[in-house]
Fold:
Amino acid sequence: MTNIIKNTINEIILLIYDVSIRWFGNKKQFFPTLEDINNKDIKELSKRLEGDSEKETLTNILEWQERNIKGWTDRMYMLITMISSYVITLVGFVISFIILIFIGSFSIFPVQIQTMMQINNIMFLSIVFGAFMSLMLYLIIKYKIIKRNVQEFKLKDIFSFSLPTAKILRYKLAICRDYAKLTASLLFNIYPSNGIFFFAIPWHVATGIEINNKKYVIDQKLPVLTWEKWLIYWKQKNTTVYISKLIKTSENQLRFYFKKYKKLSLRKDLLTKPIDTQKIQHEVVKILKISQISAKDKPDFELTFPKFATYYEDDEIVIYSMARAIKKKLENELCGNINTVSKIEIKHKKEDFVVDVYLNSK
Structure:
């Protein structure tokens, strides 16, 4: 029964989201403009990240975002907080008004009732105003440091529905719709003829691209996922998908083509497919040029990669991307000593991957 209620709520949210995107212009939150795509910094970054193959390019884009862009949690929750404050204030006035009318109609002391309700409203507004001012003070203090490094930083951008890619690159801060816009802008520059997809689920949106008739999702952090594994990660059974393209007009101008694509439903057989960790291990060994020779009986340390067994799919782009994610974490742990790795072994435990790392003897 709980799952039925949850699925019903998700369907309702998806429907509302779809209507707001198609009819009320909410696609502007994550859909880049031509100015976003043609931004000088975006074009330069696109050239730097373009690899020799699709697997390298998609992985480069995702790894660059993971290394350079931080999640903007304040912006994620601040808008919800502000809207909630307005709604609560409105509801408070409505309830007070109803009580005043209802009780005042049957009371021999309507003036006293009205005075009492006015005092309650003043107290309520004082609490809301005090909470708002405390919130603003917190933001001013916290973002004062950012203001020192980024002179053009505007506090009001925290409450913005949509930011241009130029600001996303300067601030190095983003929420899901910012990541989606940035990713799409880079992909439009590198793959101008490909369809760029936006995958929408309740409370989240991510960008994808079709390569060799297969849809991949680039969602903030490594690895690159197929859209089906992305759904499994987010514990969703379906998603609303929007496709967009850049089309040249007769005047040789570029314009966007944007429409709802279809609702994709998860295939259950994906949950039972075997996992071949040897393929990923082979890719990591090749990237890091590890000898795979060690006289040690036990590893020097191990690294856990949560949910990687869930992400896995026997796909060249996914496997390469997962290998790069493992390489990145090894670099984080060993810093300049990455060359001391002599052997690795990758195994999976339930939903996770565990990497045993052997180092050269000193």
